[in-house]
Amino acid sequence: MRVTIEVNGRTVSEEVEDRMLLVHFLREQAGMTATNIGCDTTSCGACTVLLDGESVKSCTVLAAQADGHAVTTLEGLTGPDGDLHPVQRAFREQHGLQCGFCTPGMIMASVSLLAHNPKPTREEVRTGLEGNLCRCTGYHNIVNAVVDASGQEVAQ
Amino acid sequence: MSIVGTRVVRVEDGTLITKGGTYVEDLRHEALTGAVHATFVRSPVAHARITSIDTSEALQAPGVVAVYTAADIDLAPGQAGPVAQPWLADGVVRYVGEPVALVLTEQRYQLADAAELVDVDYDPLEAVASIDAALADETLLFPDLGSNVAQVTGGEFDEHAFDDCEVVVTETIVNQRVAPAPLEVRGAALAWGEDDRLTVWLSTQNPQLARTIIALGLGVGEERIRIVTPDVGGGFGAKIGSDPEPVVLGWAARRAGRPVRWTETRSENLTAMTHGRAQQNTVTIGGRRDGTVLAFRLEVVQDAGAYPRTLFLPTLTELMASGVYHFPRVETSSKGVVTNTTPISAYRGAGRPEATAAIERAMDLFAAEIGRDPAEVRRTNFIRPEEFPYQTPTGASYDTGEYAAALDRVLEAGGYHQLRAEQARRREAGEPVALGLGLAAYVEITGGDGGGESGRVDVNPDGSLTAYTGASPHGQGLGTSLMMLLSDQFGIPLERITVRHGDTDEVPTGVGTFGSRSLQLGGSAVRRAAETVIERARALAAEMLEASPDDVVLDTDRGAWHVRGAPSSATVGWADVAARAGDGELSEDVWYDEGTPTFPFGAHLAVVEVDTLTGKVVLRRIVALDDAGPVVNPLAFEGQRHGGLGQGAAQALLEVMSYDSDGNPTTATLADYSFISATELPDFELLHMATPTTRNALGVKGIGEAATIGSTPAVHNAVVDALAHLGVRHLDMPATPLRVWQAINDARKAD
Ligand code: FES
Ligand code: FES
Description:
heterodimer; A: alpha+beta; Ubiquitin-like (UB roll); DNA polymerase, domain 1; 2 domains; 5 helices; 30% helix; 15% strand; globular; B: alpha+beta; Aldehyde Oxidoreductase, domain 3; Aldehyde Oxidoreductase, domain 4; 3 domains; seven-stranded mixed sheet; five-stranded mixed sheet; 18 helices; 30 strands; binds FE2/S2 (inorganic) cluster; Carbon monoxide dehydrogenase (chain B); oxidoreductase activity (chain B); iron ion binding (chain B); molybdenum (chain B); AldOxase/xan_DH_MoCoBD2 (chain B)
C-alpha cells in the first residue's frame, strides 16, 4: 500500500507492506535513523516520536496509521540554523545521556512531557518518563535535563 | 589554567542529541549494499536431543536465500572453557536460546516467517535448571566431563578456623542471575571484500579482541579480519569481545557470497546474550561480642550456564572476599557448575559485586547477632589507612584506601543517627511503613586483567592533534576525558583534538573496555605517548628559537613554546613545530603495560521504606561516596556513578532472570523482566573524596563499576534492616513485594 507521511516537514510517500511499523518507515523509507528500536513489547520507549505533536511509541503504530499525518523525530527538533531545542541543549548540559541509544526517544518523550506540563516537579518528570528506559544514566541526569529545559533551577 | 578536573560537557554529545548515534543498524555503508538479513532459529527447550531438522519448507518461503544448520558448518567447534561449544547446536541443545539454525532472507520482514518454517524435532532430556540440580549430578550436560562441576578451587578448610570465636553466623546468600540488557541489543554487519578480507561492523566493547576471536573461529589469520566499532548502545560487560554468532555470520557471508546484517530482537537478547551474577554464596563469619571479626569463610558456587565461558568470575569473587576488612583468617573455595541455562559472563562488576554482597550481608548478620550497630562493627574491622599497601589473605594487594573516613562521611551526610531515631519511633508506634537503613562499605579492583593498552598521539601539520586509543568507549565519555588530558599537556584547545578508536585497521593493537580499565590504562598510554611527542617537539622548538632544549618551555595556556623567562619574546606554535618536523617525528605509538590493578573504594547508605502490610519497598535515598582517585571530568565521573547506582539498586529490588524447573525462562521479554525505570529510583546524593593511587601514570582508579558494587548490598541490607524488628534475619534479592511479604509472614510464623 502507499503511505504518505510528513516527516520533519518533508513529505515522504512510499509503497510499503501493510504490516510495516512506523519506526521502520521512519528509518528505512524516510532515512531518519535517530529513532531506535530497543524492544519488541512496547516497553522501552527508544522509538518515541511525535505524531501530530503527541508522543507515540513508533514500534506500536503501523505506518499505515500515520498515513496523512505529521511525524517529528529527533532530527526534526534542531532549528534551521542548527539551533538546539531547549531539551537537546539541556540533555547535553546536564549529561542526560551516555551511550545515546535511549536518547532520541527520551528527548522526544521529554518534549511531549513539557508540552503538557511546562513546569514539572522532579517526581512528575519521573512519572512522565516511566515508559522510557535507560540503562546507562540511572535517570538522575535525565530528570535534571528536563527540569533544566523547563527553565527551573536544577537543585540536585 | 588546567581543564582537567573541571566539568566539561561531552564532545560526543553533539551528534547524539541532533542526529542520533550511528549504531550497527544505522549503517548505510556501500559495502553493505545488497546485504541479506539474518536471524537465528533458537532452541525453545532447555535440554534435548535434536532428532531431525527439516529446512525444506523454510527454503521455499519468500525471499529465503539460505538456511544453514550444524551439518553445513565446516569450522572447528569453538571452545567454551573446558567444553566445546558448537557454532550451531549439533545433536543436543543445552539452553533455551541456543542457536540451532541460521536463516538468510532478502528482506528483513521475511525473516520471522521463514524461521518459523524451520522444523526441528526435539527429544527432551531432563533439564538441569538450578545450581542444586547441577550439583546433584544426576543428569549431566556433558557426559564426557563426568560431572556438572566444571571448575573447583580451594576448599581445604581449617576445621578449627572458628574455634576462638564467641559468635559464629552462617548463611547461604543467592546472588541472582540478571540480564545485562544494554538498550541496544547485539548486532553485526559483515562483508567480505575483493581482497578476501572480512569487515565486521560489530557492537562490541573490544574490537581487537573480537578480531582475534572471529579470526580464530573462522580459521583465518587476524590480518584478514577488520573490525569496525560504530557507536555502541551500552555493553556492561556482555559485549566483551565477540559472541559466537558473528563467527557464524562471517562464515555465512562467505558461503552465501553476500554481505550479511544481523540484529537480534529484545526477546531473543534476553536469553541469547549472556547473563550475569548467578552465584550462590555461603558465608560463615565469626568473632567476638565486641564486634571484632576473627574468621571469615566464603564458599562460592557459580552457575556458569550451559557453556562455561567465564570461570574467572568465581575466582575474582574469592580474591575480593574479605572486602575492606582486616580479618585474621579468611578462607574461600569455589565451584563452577554448568546448567541448562543461558551462559553466564561479565556484567558490570563481574565477580566483585558478588564478593561485596556476600561480605556486606555477612557483616550485617554478624552485627545483628551480637546486637551492635552495623556501622560500628564495620568501623571496628576496617583496614586502617596506615596499613596500605595491604596484602589480603586471599592474595590481593590493595593500593590506597580511607575506608573509615568514607563511611563516616556517608553517615554524617545521611543523618544516620536521626534516621535511626526515626526508625525507633516508627517501631515504637507500630507504624505499618517501616524504615530501613542499609550500609555497604566496599573495595573493588579495576584494571584487574593485568594487560596493557595502546595509545598513539599525532601532531598534525595544522597544529591540531589526533589521538588513537585501544580503549573502546561506548557511553563513558572517555573521548572527552582523553581530550582534556591532552589539552592540558599540549596547550591545545579541545576543538583541535580528535580521539579515534574502534577500527582495527586504524588501531591495530588494543585491549578495549572492561573492568573499569580504560582511563587508568588507556589514559596512561595516551599520556605516555604525548610526553614523548612533546619532548621531540621541544628539540624542534629549541632549534627554531635558537636556544638549548633545556631553555625552552611550553606555555600550556597558549600552546606555544618560548625561551624560559622570556614569555613575551618570540614564540613557536604547534603548527610551526609541525612544519619543521620530519615525517612521523611528532607521532608516537606506545603500549602501556606498567599499570597494575587499582582498588577503588567507598561507602553507601540506602534508606528504604517498606510497607509491612503489602511488602512493597520504596527506595527513598542513596547517599554514596565512591573514591576512584583524582577525577578528570567530574561530569562523566558522576554519570558513571549514577548509572552504577541505578543498576545496583535494580538488582537489589527488582531484577531477576528466572527459570522454571524445566529450564524455561519466565522473564524473557522486556514486559516480564523488571528493568528499572525512573519512578523506582530516587535522586542520588553523591559525596566526593579522591585518594590517588601510585600504580599508574595518572594516579587514577576506575569508576565504571564501583557504584554498582556498593549499591546492591546497601539497598539489600536496608530492606532486611527495615524488617529486623519483625524477626526477619535475611531474605534473598530481589526484594519484590511477594518475597518481602513472605519473609515477614515466615518470621511471624516462626515467632
Ligand atoms: S522499541 Fe521499545 S517501545 Fe518501541
Ligand atoms: S544513555 Fe544508554 S540507554 Fe540511555
